[in-house]
Write a structure and sequence with these properties.
The complex is a heterodimer of chains A (497) and B (443). Chain A is an all-alpha fold and 497 residues long. Chain A has a domain of 228 residues. Chain A has 22 helices and 2 strands. Classes of the chains: A mainly alpha (497), B alpha/beta (443). Chains A and B meet through helix 8 of A and strand 2 and helix 2 of B.
């Protein structure tokens, strides 16, 4: 007997799918304007509406308990990944037109990973609509599809807390207001506002003559993927294609995308100490600065760049990788092994809880670090009773346990993935190195995007065999939904009594 | 409105679930596990903290809060909440208490404890019992329009003569048969016939409700309720006895503890007190408890309550009403054949909800644990109702909405389909829970 009310999950998946159709209107409008891929987007909209009606008819309305929530979130992300792949297949241009590649690209989009299988990233090969859909999918996935659905569809509020907790990044998702729908709306409002600010600034640079290539289209495209810590760019050379000024403007927005959005909302309401008082924010800033300083030092010591360029590229890559964005201001494949290894290690850090950044996340590292210190202390003083605190609040021991489990699982998955990629890599026609396979696993599990060498920032994941692509796509979803949500579906206990 | 509820227990969550749709509700709860479970079940903001501490109240934004409610299981905590809140802000404060002494002190000293309103859960339960003691088939009765309109919920038994009678035939000059509740569904359409096991909701004047009760009550029940026996001497039972006395009755009350009986005797002058174990079957037989018109069971713990109720049933009592602490046991009591189970905490929660919404010019009663709501609205000059007939209004509203009654210049008027609403009327309307907010906002 299956004890999960799966038809309820199915029904609400249909509801979310209806909003997908609405999201597809933006690329559809672009397609109509340019006359390219109109059918691809029109058909996808029709199919998602059809699918939504079918799911809603077959599913049921009802109470969402924690297991229905887990199933619903997993279903939503898989469904959205599949539906999002349709335009690539239907458009039929370039390397993303095959089903597996399209799925990889779509999942990489929604999970804000930014790893691509497009051989030619360019609006010459692909239509502007397709390239914008790629960007928009990251923006939607950044703040969360379910969070958006809760904001727009208040009926989901009942039991919605579990839903949002399943999707929201990090262990600290808390309501900001009495009503969940209101909290979801506040978060999306902040998200929209910061994104709009970035778009406006980028375009202002263009109008001011500081960014000749940054058209309105590209400003919007990059606004979408910066705030989502996504990393897709319609430009083949990522941010290296743009001027120094553009690179410097993007840095603070990438950093902001890694901050807990609740802090923005509190600051907006007048609580200006919100940032200063938040221990995770302080640690996050410290981590960004530390990684950037070391990287700049390494680059400068190697004599690759002059001071100005070393600072710019060091800071840009440090912020881009730590926040799991995955933009590149330069092809760091050319960097020294030391610098590249540093980047791969930085892929495990991640943004703050409640941000759009992925990977392990700062608050978890904070808890892990403090619990190591505690264990060292209690080794010396066995009868000492010490609790782990973040700021003033005591972290519950169950939370500490969950954090340990998550971190361990993350590392185990990373190693397992690296081995599988390496083993399956012989078919590539290029002997993968350990560092390449490790960076591919870390970059997908952490939703970063580019790795090093074979999967470097100016290259792509196209040449991996199908099995590896599917594995890495699964890694992206595992990383975005923080592993446990997906893994628990494969346990017997989830489905039974 | 922003409403702070201290205590995420029975009363707190009950109040919260009634208010969360239309208001911003924050719950302060000390126990982390309970906080977590409330967080998962209600769309409210749950904050862990002690509601009697300033820090916790500030964390809950007490300055922005319109109403603060002390809803824990401890009287003193609830009063301390009111005291603390009122010393720091001008938030309206409500406390749930169980000791009548506190209510008396509060009333005689014009708002000691910093409380603006006190609700005594035991007294509420006693009132709920006293209201329906005369109506053998009634489960619940609420009053509207200053008591001129009564809304009552009857159980239709298999022996009742109205089984198979169309709902509309129960309509009288001063009575509207509002709805039938059957297996969790609400039936309001014309042409519905009553079946055994239905719950009938009807609204009308006190006299008409009594007449309706007489019609649906099977003959084996006594014509008037004279012989009332109370088993147990809990504080709620004491309140019930006092209400019965004020209705002119002389109940019998069985109390085990002699000193408790002595205390009660000082207070209850018309009640015959018997000092004996109320769960001793041979004693109950000796006292002919089985012949009583109503047996009320009021112990301090539910196990004895269940035992006492089953014994009274077995002795042949026509009707047993039991005060039950834990609403979760409801079905158990029902299975044991108890006619009415009254929950003091649920009554307190409803009283607090009604009062809170009443401050917002809504007088709302909850039917059958939230499947439907009944509310009273005043018709203002700008209202959409003015100059429209009942028929027209009902046609524009969802199907489950029924106009139950209206009062004009303080007099009851039957809501005939052709009657036209005027400014100053008070309208009592019934709506299923899923549409009630929409209907309330439109009226």
């Amino acid at each position: 007997m299956v004890r999960v009310n799966w038809r309820v999950s199915l029904g609400y998946t249909g509801v979310v799918l209806r909003w997908m159709a609405a999201a597809l209107l933006l690329p559809f409008a672009l397609a109509v304007a340019s006359g390219e891929d109109v059918v691809a987007f029109g058909a996808t909209i029709a199919l998602s509406l059809l699918g939504s009606v079918a799911l809603e008819r077959y599913g049921r309305q009802g109470d969402i308990d924690s297991r229905e929530a887990i199933l619903l979130v997993s279903l939503v992300w898989t469904t959205v990944g599949i539906v999002g792949a349709l335009p690539y297949v239907l458009a039929g241009t370039g390397t993303v037109a095959t089903p597996v590649n399209a799925l990889f690209e779509s999942v990489s989009g929604f999970t804000t990973t930014g790893a691509t299988v497009m051989a030619e990233v360019s609006t010459d090969t692909h239509s502007r609509a397709i390239m914008m859909w790629r960007q928009e999918s990251q923006w939607l996935g950044g703040m969360g599809i379910v969070v958006l659905a809760v904001a727009l569809f208040p009926n989901l509020s009942v039991g919605g807390v579990q839903l949002v907790e399943r999707e929201a990044p990090g262990p600290r998702m808390r309501k900001l207001t009495p009503k969940l729908a209101e909290t979801a709306r506040v978060l999306w409002k902040v998200y929209v506002l910061v994104t709009a600010t970035e778009i406006a600034l980028l375009y202002a640079l263009h109008l001011g003559g500081f960014a000749p290539d940054m058209s309105l289209y590209l400003a919007v495209a990059h606004g979408f993927t910066t705030m989502a810590t996504g990393g897709f760019s319609p430009a083949a050379r990522s941010i290296a294609a743009f001027s120094t000024a553009v690179q410097w403007v993007i840095v603070p927005f990438m950093a902001a995308a890694g901050v807990n959005f609740a802090l923005f909302s509190r600051a907006y309401q007048g609580d200006l100490d919100a940032f200063r008082d938040d221990p995770e924010f302080r640690t996050y800033l410290g981590v960004l600065v530390a990684v950037a300083v070391v990287l700049v030092g390494v680059l400068f010591a190697n004599g690759d760049y002059a001071v100005g360029a070393a600072v710019r590229h060091g800071v840009f890559q440090a912020v881009s990788i730590v926040t799991t964005t995955g933009y590149a201001s330069v092809d760091f494949n050319a960097w020294s092994e030391t610098a590249q290894t540093l980047l791969v290690l930085a892929m495990f850090l991640g943004g703050s809880a409640g941000s759009t950044g992925s990977a392990i996340k700062i608050v978890r590292w904070l808890i892990v670090g403090k619990s190591i210190v505690r264990t060292l202390f209690t080794t010396a003083h066995p009868s000492a009773l010490r609790s782990i605190r973040i700021g003033e609040t005591v972290v519950k021991s169950s939370t500490v346990r969950d954090v340990h489990t998550f971190t361990l699982l993350y590392v185990v998955l990373f190693f397992a993935g690296s081995v599988l990629v390496l083993a399956n890599g012989t078919t590539v026609g290029h002997a993968l190195t350990v560092q390449e396979s490790m960076s591919a696993a870390a970059a997908t599990l952490g939703n970063v995007g580019p790795g090093v060498d074979f999967v470097g920032p100016m290259r792509n994941y196209l040449h991996f065999p199908t099995g590896t692509k599917l594995l890495l796509a699964a890694f992206m979803i595992l990383g975005r939904l923080e592993i446990l949500t997906i893994l628990v579906l494969f346990t017997r206990g989830f489905w039974r009594g | 409105m922003r409403i702070l509820i201290v205590g995420g227990g029975e009363v707190g969550t009950n109040v919260a679930s009634g208010l969360a749709d239309a208001h911003d509700v924050v719950i302060l709860e000390v126990d982390p596990e309970r906080a977590e479970s409330v967080r998962g079940s209600l769309d409210v903001l749950v904050i862990e903290g002690d509601g009697t501490s300033l820090e916790a109240l500030e964390a809950a934004d007490i300055e922005e809060t319109d109403i603060a409610i002390g809803a824990t299981d401890h009287d003193e905590t609830n009063l301390a909440v009111c005291g603390t809140v009122s010393s720091t802000s001008d938030t309206f404060t409500i406390a749930q208490v169980t000791k009548q002494t506190y209510v008396r002190t509060w009333r005689n000293t014009h708002g000691t404890f910093g409380a603006n309103y006190l609700v005594n859960s035991r007294l509420r339960a006693a009132q709920a019992i006293a209201r329906i003691v005369d109506l053998p088939m009634a489960h619940d009765l609420e009053t509207f329009a200053n008591g001129r309109v009564q809304l009552v919920e009857f159980e239709i038994g298999a022996e009742s003569v109205v089984v198979e009678t169309p709902l509309d035939e129960l309509r009288e000059d001063e009575l509207v048969p509002v709805a039938v509740l059957r297996d969790g569904a609400i039936l309001t359409a014309n042409g519905v016939s009553l079946e055994a096991g239905d719950r009938l909701v009807a609204a009308g004047t006190e006299r008409a409700v009594a007449a309706c009760s007489e019609r649906i009550t099977p003959e084996r029940y006594a014509e008037s309720i004279d012989d009332v026996v109370l088993l147990g001497g809990s504080a709620t039972a004491e309140h019930v006895a006092r209400h019965l006395e004020s209705q002119g009755r002389s109940p019998r009350m069985v109390v085990e503890d002699r000193s408790r009986a002595n205390d009660l005797r000082a207070d209850l002058t018309e009640t015959t007190l018997l000092v004996h174990d109320p769960t001793d079957p041979s004693f109950l037989e000796r006292e002919h408890v089985g012949d009583a018109d109503v047996v009320l069971v009021g112990f301090d713990d539910d196990q004895r309550g269940l035992l006492g109720s089953m014994l009274a049933r077995q002795q042949g009592a026509d009707r047993t009403m039991t005060i039950v602490d834990e609403p979760e046991y409801d079905t158990l009591f029902e299975a044991a054949g108890i006619d009415v189970a009254v929950h003091p905490r649920a009554e307190a929660a409803e009283a607090i909800s009604r009062f809170t919404r009443g401050r917002n010019a809504e007088n709302v009663a909850i039917v059958e644990r939230g499947v439907a709501e009944v509310f009273e609205v005043a018709v203002e000059s700008s209202s959409l109702l003015v100059d429209h007939t009942v028929n027209e209004v009902e046609d524009t509203l969802p199907e489950s909405v029924v106009v139950c009654a209206l009062t004009r210049d303080g007099d009851y008027h039957h809501p005939h389909p052709s009657i036209t609403f005027q400014e100053g009327d008070r309208v009592v309307a019934f709506a299923s829970a899923d549409v009630s907010d929409e209907v309330l906002s439109r009226l």
